[in-house]
Amino acid sequence: MPELVFFSGTMDCGKSTLALQIEHNRSARGLQGVIFTRNDRAGEGKLSSRLGLVTDAVEVADGQDLYAYLVDRLSQGGRADYVIADEAQFLVPEQIDQLARVVDDLGLDVYAFGITTDFRTKLFPGSQRLVELADRIEVLQVEALCWCGARATHNARTVGGAMVVEGAQVVVGDVNQSADEVGYEVLCRRHHRRRMTAATARAAALSPDVLPVSST
Ligand SMILES: Nc1ncnc2c1ncn2[C@@H]1O[C@H](COP(=O)(O)OP(=O)(O)O)[C@@H](O)[C@H]1O
Ligand SMILES: Cc1cn([C@H]2C[C@H](O)[C@@H](COP(=O)(O)O)O2)c(=O)[nH]c1=O
């Protein structure tokens, strides 16, 4: 049975790498996939992983009907044996419904990859719809880690290393950004709640307030 699978996790946990591996393994066996993406850091029409691999993809436009795209392609004699959708959190709920229809009406497997929640721990609308509709939700096996060593479960947005909680839901960016840039850091829930990033934890550890008091 074809499936809609949602591979979810924090930023930097290997989602795009897995998408590229699925693509590689299927195309190595002569299958031809359609790869959708939106707002990849590598630029328009690209699916990229931090391991350095990148492939061409169809950049999803505002309001684009993904089901109609596949029907058009197939009716013009094109091939589509499966579908990959990376950065699926940036798709609108209607586009997730269209992907579910691709599974049910066209009989294609759809593999969607994305972060579930934003920097304020709120669901992205596209990810919410995937949770509602997916046949299966897979959490990536490679754990991204918080600075404290615990499994990272949440995404923080940072400016100069400090966590911010105000701003637009969508700001394309990366982890490990330089101090003055808007960036992201993955944290465990405890440290996300306390707004404690690696930089603020380091600063707190160095603060005279918490230095051990000498008995002499
Ligand atoms: N230099 C490196 N050596 C080995 N693994 C790396 C390196 N850089 C990144 N990675 C791996 O790549 C993962 C990020 O992969 P990526 O597919 O870009 O993540 P996502 O799409 O989930 O944001 C990291 O969690 C890490 O496991
Ligand atoms: C938390 C959060 C992230 N984003 C952006 C930042 C990146 O461009 C992507 C995630 O990409 P990745 O391959 O999973 O690292 O999403 C955002 O726009 N808003 C957020 O709250």
Automatic annotation (TrEMBL):
Organism of this sequence: Streptomyces glomeratus
Name of the protein: Thymidine kinase
Gene: tdk
Organism taxonomic ancestry: Bacteria, Bacillati, Actinomycetota, Actinomycetes, Kitasatosporales
Primary location: cytoplasm
Binding residues for ATP: G9, T10, M11, D12, C13, G14, K15, S16, D86, E87, A88, Q89
Active site: E87
Catalysed reaction equations from the record: thymidine + ATP = dTMP + ADP + H(+)
Top-rank EC class of the record's enzyme: transferase
Protein family: Belongs to the thymidine kinase family.
